[in-house]
Amino acid sequence: MAATFFGEVVKVRSRAVTEDEEDEEDPWAPDNPEDREVRRELERKREVEVLQTQTNLSLEIPLLEQYPCSKFIMAVGNNAVAFLSSFVLNSETWEEIGSTKLWNEWCRTTDTTNLSPTDAFCVFYRLKSDPTVFLCQCSCYVAEDQQYQWLEKVFGSSPKRNLQITILTSRHVTDYKTPESSCNLPSPFLKALKTQSFQDAACCTLLEQPNIVHDLPAAVLSYCQVWKIPAILYLCYTDIMKLDLVTIEAFKPILGSKSLKGLVKNVSHGTEILKKLVTTNEIQSNIYT
Amino acid sequence: MAARYDRAITVFSPDGHLFQVEYAQEAVKKGSTAVGIRGTDIVVLGVEKKSVAKLQDERTVKKICALDDHVCMAFAGLTADARIVINRARVECQSHKLTVEDPVTVEYITRFIATLKQRYTQSNGCRPFGISALIVGFDDDGIPRLYQTDPSGTYHAWKANAIGRSAKTVREFLEKNYTEDTIATDSEAIKLAIRALLEVVQSGGKNIELAIIRRNQPLKMFSAKEIESQVVDIEKEKEEAEKKKSKKLI
């Protein structure tokens, strides 16, 4: 017990660890049913589900346990997604096999029960000619608390054999830490980060310390490092985060890599598609001239 | 660390940065590329045209603006900020002419714009202008001038420079290709500006706008046809140069 300046007598919190500690109030314990209900509803809202396209039902087991996979290529962010859409998705025949349904504060929709097709943000495609090759187009933001769920529902928690993962994403160049001035950086530029078990050469220089990777790509890469899956992340540092032709073209060196080998047929055709994609999105903002 | 020193323009960080000014320079990089070249008897301004929506009137989206009969400027960055700066500069040009009965020198109007920009980097409650400008023209002494200003309020004279997105690539091209030969004649200077822009402009000539000022002549805006014919000439010259190269190798 201690007296405060104003004459109140308060119980002093002791740092001594005694058995009575368990009786002390835990500020995080749900103290009433209403709070518990709100928390449960929020958890339900933020649940990540992987839906099968054919049946539109939620998958019971992880995606890559349902379908065997040898190559998994993933694009996170609108520029990486546009790159794969133009150069890889159009070439061969791919079939959509599933999508993830999730909601967080960054999502534009408020209705989580009836998501339209355009709201299915993470779409999974499988190559028809080789059903072990998967492509994931992720243009939504997966929040920190959802990333573990996403990994569980897509990759599962058992080690995978013969799987190689390639991730493409972009980040603003102001996040790139370097002793040089940011005016001298040749943005956009590509950097790579790979797991220990990835033996092939990267198409660009490796990401130097103290730079780190964030969000879903980081979660996937960490998962791969833990489970000893060969994986490589290609990160494009750019000064334009919206859909931009110059940024997307910075990913082009990856077309020659082993990961995308055989999946890209016609580069010029891909360039045409890309131009169309970018021009339809371009004429939006008048803020900058 | 930057988070504590970048909220107010009037606060220096411990290592001497004014983060709001540096962030304003990032806003400039969001604008499309503009290039300026100072020739012997000509000054050239070339810009990458911003793509216009179908229902939008093209005339209202201009990157090259005349400040007076003998001075014009191109900008990159926030459109609204540019409009304010251009209006103030135009008023100043006329006011100067009425007061001292002489047209402004290019350096005078550049200094005016730069001073205006600098004032906004030292005021509380205001933010810096998010534009860089390339100001070109001829003074009464007949000497061509090219100046560049940036959001911090500095201005420098240049022989050739670029601002906006991909400015670094264009500047490197200019550093390699700006020689006494390439600016010897007016047409060579114009071609240099177009070649510099073609390095970074996506769909070739139809996305380029060009303006020139010749000594004792008013500003001339090139039409799309004229630019296209220049681009065709440049491509021909490129092909011929490549043929010569391959012949030499053989």
UniProtKB/TrEMBL annotation, chain A:
Q: Where is this region: Disordered?
A: 15-38
Per the record, a Pfam family? PAC1
One GO cellular component term noted in the UniProt record for this chain? endoplasmic reticulum
What keywords were assigned to this record?
Chaperone
Q: Name one GO biological process term.
A: proteasome core complex assembly
Tell me the InterPro entries matching this sequence. Proteasome_assmbl_chp_1
Composition-biased stretches, type Acidic residues, lie in: 19-32
Whether Membrane counts among this entry's keywords is no
Report the GO molecular function annotations.
molecular adaptor activity; proteasome binding
The UniProt function text for this chain reads: Chaperone protein which promotes assembly of the 20S proteasome as part of a heterodimer with PSMG2. The PSMG1-PSMG2 heterodimer binds to the PSMA5 and PSMA7 proteasome subunits, promotes assembly of the proteasome alpha subunits into the heteroheptameric alpha ring and prevents alpha ring dimerization.
Record note on quaternary structure: Forms a heterodimer with PSMG2. The PSMG1-PSMG2 heterodimer interacts directly with the PSMA5 and PSMA7 proteasome alpha subunits.
Which family does this protein fall into?
A: Belongs to the PSMG1 family.
Protein name (Swiss-Prot/TrEMBL): Proteasome assembly chaperone 1
Q: Which gene encodes it?
A: PSMG1
From TrEMBL, chain B:
InterPro entries assigned to the protein according to its UniProt record, in alphabetical order? Ntn_hydrolases_N, Proteasome_alpha, Proteasome_alpha-type, Proteasome_asu_N, Proteasome_sua/b
Query: What's a BP term from Gene Ontology annotated to this protein?
Result: ubiquitin-dependent protein catabolic process
Q: Which SMART domains match?
A: Proteasome_A_N (SM00948)
Localization recorded for this chain is: Cytoplasm; Nucleus
Q: Which domain of life is it from?
A: Eukaryota
Q: Which residue range or ranges hold the Proteasome alpha-type subunits domain?
A: 5-27
For this UniProt entry, which segments traverse the membrane?
A: none
Query: Which key words are in the record?
Result: Cytoplasm, Nucleus, Proteasome
Which Pfam families does this one have? Answer: Proteasome, Proteasome_A_N
Per the record's keyword annotation, is NAD included, yes or no?
no
**Keyword Manganese among UniProt keywords:** no
Show the GO cellular component annotation of the record. cytosol; nucleus; proteasome core complex, alpha-subunit complex
Q: Which NCBIfam families match?
A: PRK03996.1 (NF003075)
Q: What quaternary structure, including any partners, is listed in this protein's UniProt entry?
A: The 26S proteasome consists of a 20S proteasome core and two 19S regulatory subunits.
Task: Indicate the family of this protein.
Answer: Belongs to the peptidase T1A family.
Q: What is this protein called?
A: Proteasome subunit alpha type
Organism (species): Vombatus ursinus (Common wombat)
Its taxonomic path starts at: Eukaryota, Metazoa, Chordata, Craniata, Vertebrata
